[in-house]
Amino acid sequence: MEDGIQNSSFQEPADLKLSPAGLAFLASAAKWANFLAIVCFIFIGISAITMVSLIFGASALSLGADEYVTAGALSTFGVLYLLFLAFFCLPIYFLYNFGSKAKKAIENRDSIQLELCLDALKKHYKFIGIIVIITIAFNFMGLVVGVVLGISDAFAGV
């Protein structure tokens, strides 16, 4: 069973101590985490504005009859991309929480904030790990489908 933050307060407070070098490493990691989170939030915001303008601007496009891309396809792509951006706000939020709570923990020498920052970091990496597992599964399924379609196409052409 996983120990949560609530259970950790019942342990001895002197179980684990950070050296000055460890605190410096944590402070540096917190600064980089906040920087990366802010840059990602800015990128997500710019991308969202771009996609919203694509969704509303797609209906104004005057594509010829022989064009393959329709306004509906562009709007659908824009909506799916907005959902994708919204989905990836969560790990960026966890990363930002890690950085801000780590800074508070170091400034105030607060072990509860340290636990909360490590919990946010755990959530961030758990989310990214699940996404990696899903990506590997989709790539493997694509490989299997591609091989099966390739073999069936080879036999159909004979």
TrEMBL record:
The chain crosses the membrane at residues 35-61, 73-96, 127-151. Keywords: Membrane, Transmembrane, Transmembrane helix. It comes from the Bacteria. This is Uncharacterized protein. It comes from Sphingobacterium siyangense.
